[in-house]
Amino acid sequence: MGGATQQQLHLLRILLSCRKITAQVTKPITESIIAIASTTEPEFLPQLKAKQNRFPRSHNFMDAKIAARIGEKLGLRLKELGVLNVEIDFNEELLRPVHQQKLVRPIFQNVKRAGINISGAEKLPFGG
């Protein structure tokens, strides 16, 4: 048998819209979700309702504070599962619009703060 095979890491994907943030980690090969954190969880509903009902109306209900909490929750869930290393799709993150990069950064920072290594994030120009 030849050289060592490179182990594929779990994939961290962040899905953003003007009304929702979802951060999920999937298994390699099967692509089944092993951990997820989202603004659809009950903890975030009061904040989102308050932002929906304010005047003047805004079409963007997410901010860096909410994104940071998503990262914190995901990091803790990964740690509970014993997953300490994940990777990102570098090209996908590189193509992300600037206004979304501002939400991704705090997610990555808080996942890292929980002790999870994010492979590929260190190469991002927006400081993942």
Automatic annotation (TrEMBL):
The keyword Amino-acid biosynthesis does not apply. GO terms for cellular component: ribonucleoprotein complex; ribosome. GO terms for biological process: translation. Gene3D superfamilies: 3.30.420.100. One of its GO terms (molecular function) is structural constituent of ribosome. Transmembrane segments: none annotated. Belongs to the universal ribosomal protein uL18 family. This is 50S ribosomal protein L18-like. It comes from Coffea arabica.
